[in-house]
Amino acid sequence: MTQSEITIPGIKGICGGREVFLGFAPANLLSSVSFADVLDEHTGQGYQRKFNKKHSLDFRRYIRAADSSTIPLTFNLRPESKQWWRLQHDELGQSFLKLVAGKNRVFSRVDCQHRLGSLSDLDIPLAFMTFIGLPLKDEIGLFTVINSKAKGLSASLLSFNEAKLLTDVASEKPSLYIALKLNDDEESPWFKQLDLGGSRVIGMARRASLSTMMSATKRFLRKTGFLTASQETADDAYLIIRSFWAAIVELLASQWKEQRKHFLTKGIGVYALMDVAADLLLEAHQKSIVCDEDYFRAVLSDFICGFDWSHSGPLKGLGGETGAEQAYSMLVQLRKGIVYGA
User: Fold this and answer.
1) Between the CA of residue 280 and those of 95, 295, 332, what are the distances in Å?
2) CB–CB of 341/302 below 8 Å?
3) pLDDT tens, residue by residue, 176-190
4) CB atoms < 10 A from the CB of 338, how many?
5) Is 86 helix (H, G, I), strand (E, B) or coil?
6) What is the pTM of this model?
7) Is the pLDDT score of 248 beyond 50?
8) Domain extents for the chain?
9) C-alpha span between 130 and 46 (Å, rounded)
10) Where are the beta strands (DSSP E) in the chain?
């Protein structure tokens, strides 16, 4: 070994259908040569949830106990960093992982972000497994499968990662495609407003989550049957949904601006309003009316401004799908009373 290399002995083998290297190393060493690829919601780069300091410190306290242990940490040695690592083997079948020392963080933390996140000063020995040369897309896929049932892992983050893995998101999962486009389109009222489950951008006011918008969109598509006709696409549905929300924001500007004081952009509001959007779309189709922002603005102006979206209003104490159904029912009754004089 030269001074510029770190050598870790271990075993090379197959785990499932993937080539891996198994070894042992001090926590501080593994911390210094690894990184967590946390999702940056501004750029869309990365795929893991934001760091949870409490979760990590809890593990630090645990692992320092005399009788503690943990399952192997899981890493990946990405092919693009191949110049910083190499595997060697001897005649006895033992393998050696050689890493270039310095500031090079060659291990991607696939499943150990919080276990390793607060151990940079401890030399406690830990077992680890690393995939060898796994492409980023495959790494994301494995992370998503491994963590799909993990406590505290955001459904929005899993959905965001799923979009990266699908070949044609618009046709395979149109509700996810539309929700993401609402967040990515600069002309959308929801531009960079959805919580994707990653590291949030400082100063950005987060409203609903990607998962909430995706579920609400799925309800809209199911209720309207919009994509059942061959000539209608997810992009067509997106433009209608964007127009609806643009009208909502214009009519309820103060509630939208002061989102922390109102249910408008919370799950209960998003679900209820998307059900209203579905009703209005079906009515427009029956009357052969173009379903654009002007249409939504005109129809919504008859009743939507008369509803109390504040936390002290009729939605106080409501939550979940049952609460959303109640909120939707209130809006329907309000519209019926105002528009039709019931």
Assistant:
1) 65, 9, 11
2) no
3) 899 989 988 999 999
4) 13
5) strand
6) 0.60
7) yes
8) 5-146, 154-339
9) 19
10) 5-15, 18-26, 34-35, 73-77, 85-89, 95-100, 107-111, 125-132
